[in-house]
Amino acid sequence: MTIRRWGAITAIALLTAACSGASLAGGSASANHASLTIYAAASLNVALASVKTAYETAVPGTTLTISTDASSALEAKIEQAAPADVFLSADTTNPQKLMDKGLASGAVVTFAGNRLAVIVPRANPAGLRNPADLANPGVKVIAAGESVPITKYATRLIANLAAQAGYPADFAAKYAANIASREDSVAGVVSKVGLGEGDVGIVYVTDARASSDVTMISVPDAASVHAAYAGVVVRASPNQAAARAFLAWLAGADGKSILASFGFLPPS
Questions:
Q1: What is the Cα–Cα distance from 169 to 93, expressed in whole angstroms?
Q2: CB atoms < 10 A from the CB of 100, how many?
């Protein structure tokens, strides 16, 4: 083979590689330069500030806008065509609702777990020391709304506690009778208990740890409840590839590491 012919072949190969690289770079840039709106459970609020910073650094050109509220409220907003790209819920039920109604694409992805905590104001004026005290006469329980995921988990926790030795047979009924108010989200429960507007509440461990205004009462391991967090890509999102990439990243090693630093558990 002559030097001239070898040079021509080499030039063609380099040109082909350059074009291919440009195509890949263009596709990557197109996917990366996305502005994603993330609807997320209120209990993820603090952790997602770090997730936002890490992801925008890892995927240059991407901008995340985080909007948090009760999972049930966010699911309802998406049903009403609110412009979200990804929905991160404190349960699997609300993402599945969107799937069942054809409003989500891909699969429901479980990305984290959490546990429940019984919280009291830092000063604990009611002197509560044990979860059994949730049923004491006159105790003001701050709870979440019926449709908020924490309520489903709290109901399971109360049932588990009622089955423990030493708890009265009517523990669940007495607890229910002590509910003084229902808040729109877990954040509302933490805030109200922290302000001393109630004696006690049931929230996620991560929310309890993030507040300097409340302290936790230990829950027996036998009664513990595991909360599963799941997400979906919203079908109406104009950024399907970028939304899927973000959800996969959050459920992967990097996302799990950040969530773990805030007390979230691996999905199970």
A1: 30
A2: 9
Tokens of 247: 């959800």
In terms of domains, do 39 and 100 share one? yes
In whole angstroms, what is the distance from residue 263 CA to residue 268 CA? 15
Over range 75-102, report the average pLDDT: 97
CATH number for 107? 3.40.190.10
Mean pLDDT of the chain: 89
- Report the amino acid identity of residue 110: T
pTM: 0.84
In a domain, 21, yes or no: no
* The pLDDT of residue 1 is above 50: no
Q: Are residues 186 and 233 in the same domain?
A: no
* Residues forming beta bridges with residue 201, ordered by sequence position: 119, 142
From residue 147, how far is each of 67, 76, 234, 257 by CA, in Å?
Answer: 19, 11, 21, 30
Structural domain harbouring 191: 114-226
**Which residue has tokens 């997602």?**
48
